[in-house]
Amino acid sequence: MPQVSANGIDIGYEAVGEGPPLLMLHGATSGGRLDFGPQVARLRRDFTCYLPDARGHGATPWDAADGFSYDWLVDDTLALADALGLGAFHLLGFSMGGGTALGVASRSPARVLTLVVMGVSTEREPRASVARRLFDAERIKRSQPAWAEVLDERHDPVQGEGAWERLLPVIAASIASGELLSPGALRRVDAPTLVVAGDRDPFTPVDHAWRLKRQLADGRLLIVPDCGHEVTARRPGLVNEALARFYRATAATAAARAARWAAGADARVTATAAGATASRQPRAASEEERT
Q1: How far is CA 59 from CA 46, 52, 54, 249, in A?
Q2: How far apart are CA 25 and CA 220, in angstroms?
Q3: Is the previous residue joined to 202 through a cis bond, with omega within 30 degrees of 0?
Q4: How many CB atoms lie within 10 A of CB 163?
Q5: Is residue 148 exposed (0-12), middle (13-18) or buried (19+ Cβ within 10 Å)?
Q6: Please, are residues 48 and 16 in contact by the beta-carbon 8 Å criterion?
Q7: What are the tens digits of pLDDT across the range 177-232?
Q8: What tens digit of pLDDT does each residue of 25-80 get?
Q9: Mode of pairing for the β-strands spanning 21-25 and 89-94
Q10: Which domains does the chain have, with CATH numbers?
């Protein structure tokens, strides 16, 4: 997997497909292909799908002893987009990646063409309590040894032995104590947005997903029936069809947003060049100097 230096770390990523850029952000303990395999197979026909590994996951080295923050994940994503020269992009995130995607869209709204967030809530509970229980490394090793072996195989080759055991409690602590997105921050998200949740998701109750959708300027809601947290893997056909409909319905808006971003980028380049040219011009002599 290639890596690119961004925000002071080396981010591993995969890029497949052709078309406008679509950043796909995975959930905690996971990876892009693991969370979005069925979606990539469909979306790569219309987009260039970028699947980065979050810091501390897969091919993106990070020592949990140095801390963990959702704000850092937002920084990483925007820096990655800069490093890859993406400009404006479509954005899709699941769980931890969904929280990151919301942060990106709030911080840099004009850069996001469309937004899809899955299994995410902007409310503290029950996310924090569920994460505290599920991300208990000792419990996983004791009661789910097969899952512990999977996590070893997934992360140890790059992160080092036992890295996930140190990372999971840090992620849970970040969920429990990190700053929540305010209603004002959510109002800055102006891209067409699809909010997705399973009707049995322990992290994101249906009413949380509905409230999130209501706070967005152009929000839509999909509740996946008979499904828990992992909507992309458990109901891939339904999710793929919903994504196809969403991207068709928002194509004209996304194209207009891309044009506005490109025009703004051209203006910024022109202004920068003009400023550089002005700084190189000889200074006119003052009246005092001429005499």
Answers
A1: 26, 9, 8, 35
A2: 20
A3: no
A4: 21
A5: middle
A6: yes
A7: 999 999 999 999 999 999 999 999 999 999 999 999 999 999 999 999 999 999 99
A8: 999 999 999 999 999 999 999 999 999 999 999 999 999 889 899 999 999 999 99
A9: parallel
A10: 3-290 (3.40.50.1820)
Q: Which two tokens stand for residue 176?
A: 């429990």
Tokens of 123: 């409310």
CB-based contacts of 164, cutoff 8 Å, min separation 6: 29, 137, 151, 152, 154, 155, 156
Instruction: Report residue 140 as tokens.
Output: 């996983």
What is the amino acid identity at position 53? D
Q: Three-state SS string across 60-112, please?
A: ECCCHHHCCCHHHHHHHHHHHHHHHCCCCEEEEEECHHHHHHHHHHHHCHHHE
Paired tokens of 271 = 């202004």
How many helices and strands, by DSSP H and E, does the chain display? Answer: 13, 8
What is the structure's pLDDT at 65? 87
What's at 140, amino acid-wise?
I
